[in-house]
Design a protein that fits this description.
Number of strands: 4
Largest sheet: 2 strands, parallel
Structural class: alpha+beta
Strand content: 5-15%
Distance between the termini: 63 Å
Number of helices: 5
Mean pLDDT: 87
Length: 135
């Protein structure tokens, strides 16, 4: 992404935007990396994906690389086989509990001692205690 576009979208001063952009791999350099690695599918990530950024990304990439490439997003699933490449977004439940550990074949471990970490005074001084329930 050009530094000017990044500055405009982020509200960051242009000089700061240039520093951020210079610390990241540009699309043309990424194309050179893909050209060396020869992946079945090049995958770009950690990139801002919106209507103003995708075309410039691929324009810069195509200066140095002309094979299949996808810009990945969080929760994107990519299946690459000899016959095809399929990308899709995973369907997840954002409110799901984490999976439980298997119960069989595992030894029950002892509960670890409580942490001796101390909360900051400002945090304990502003703590809101739950109301006590009537007996």
């Amino acid at each position: 992404m050009p530094a000017e576009a990044f500055a405009r979208k982020s509200g960051m001063p242009l000089e700061h935007a240039r520093n951020v952009i210079s610390a990241h791999t540009t699309p043309d350099i990424l194309g050179r990396v893909f050209d060396i690695a020869k992946p079945k599918l090049g995958v770009g990530y950690h990139y801002f994906i919106d209507a103003d950024t995708v075309d410039p990304f691929f324009e810069g990439l195509r200066e140095t690389y002309d094979e299949p490439v996808v810009l990945a997003e969080d929760l994107m699933v990519i299946n690459v086989t000899d016959e095809q490449i399929v990308t899709r977004m995973a369907e997840t439940n954002p409110l799901a509990w984490p999976a439980q550990q298997p119960k069989s074949g595992r030894e029950q471990t002892e509960l670890a001692a409580p942490s001796e970490a101390k909360m900051q005074d400002w945090l304990t001084e502003t703590r809101i205690e739950p109301k006590k329930k009537a007996a």
